[in-house]
Amino acid sequence: MNDVAGITSRSGCPVHGTGSRPSPYYHETMYAGLAKARRDEPVFYSPETGYWIVTRYDDAMAILHDHDRISSENTSDSASPVHQDAIDIMKAGNFAAEKVQSNCDGERHTRVRNASAQLLNVKTFSLMEPGIRDLVTKALDRLERRQTADLLADLTYELPAQVLFLLLGIPQEDMEKVKAWSGTRTILNFSPSTYDQQIAGARDMVAYWQYCVDLVRKRMEEPGDDAVSGLLKVRDGDDSVLTLNELTTVVYGLVFAGHETTTSQLTNAFRALLTYRENWEAICAEPSLIPFAVEEAFRYCGAVIGWRRRAKTEIEIGGVTIPAGGNIMLSFGSANRDEKHFEEPERFDVRRKNARKHLTMGNGKHVCLGAPLARLEMKIVLEEFTRRFPDVRLAEDAKIDHAYTYVFRAPRSLPVVMR
């Protein structure tokens, strides 16, 4: 199996940030540091990342809805300066992905999103439920006689990608290379990267982009019953709706975002449910609680812990002045545990009434189009898993490493005892 994010947490090197300020990179004690920041310094500058970290829910929500003074153009920028050699490789390979959705503002964002939303919506995803349930059933069949398992390697790693392939009409045999490319993109966009990683990554991104170009071309020649063909139908050859390159960029984004975060979110959900065992027993006894468990997992252990923005002009947030051009990190991991909005926020509770207020999938104009699909996948997985394996438990003394990134909470394993 390929490494989920291609990188590991920095083993043996405590991540504590600067002075008393918490590091925005994921680590197991991150939430305690963020709770202190919400009380003492809700907006602070992180020299470690070059971002102003915003920790309170209300401030994060205000920024997500402030499109006049705040830009989303840096959402997917490289975490490290990209070496010219890597840029040259991508140029030579005709890499032409554009800023069209999460990292795009204004009219273009509205136009591309409106076109995409005609395919990526609750109606489309609901029609996929039988196919998703079939994929889940087959995955669980492979666990039937196991005494132990790694739920990431054996279930959550491939399953979300299989669902995405179902949506996009991608052959299952392409799984390994698509997952590898996604791991490379995580390194380049969301984690510090070395020169060697950037050079190898640039070559991978050229191959990844060309794969998407070829996929779109094939659907133009032979349309099918899939989202790529549907987007081409929406476009109908009209560049004022979507240019062909914009459409290809949408596909390029989906091939990454459509499964990586769901892999992490499912794994995080299983870990929380099995750690706080009364919650697992509750959803086994009352499956009607599963949709609430999904939302509480998004809140308590969201796969997206930080999201980026940039100040267009000098602004004041939480009493702190951020200069024009200043990079901002919205700490969703902190906002989702803000005491002002969530009672006893450090407690994982599948009966929490307002868990859906979480910001893990964003909010406002840029809220994740794939959120309904992620919710549906998680619901089906938990329904089928609790029915068949109610006695599963975490392996004792299991050490769980995570990717070293300030954007995702991405575990690299989840050892369990199945029976």
TrEMBL record:
Give the function comment from the record.
Cytochromes P450 are a group of heme-thiolate monooxygenases. They oxidize a variety of structurally unrelated compounds, including steroids, fatty acids, and xenobiotics.
**What Pfam families does its record include?**
p450
Q: Which residues form a coiled coil?
A: none
Region annotation Disordered: where it falls in the sequence? 1-20
Keywords, in A-Z order: Heme, Iron, Metal-binding, Monooxygenase, Oxidoreductase
MF terms per GO, please?
Answer: heme binding; iron ion binding; monooxygenase activity; oxidoreductase activity, acting on paired donors, with incorporation or reduction of molecular oxygen
Q: Needs which cofactor?
A: heme
Family the UniProt entry places it in: Belongs to the cytochrome P450 family.
Name the InterPro entries on file.
Cyt_P450 (IPR001128), Cyt_P450_B (IPR002397), Cyt_P450_sf (IPR036396)
Q: What is this protein called?
A: Cytochrome P450
Q: Which domain of life is it from?
A: Bacteria
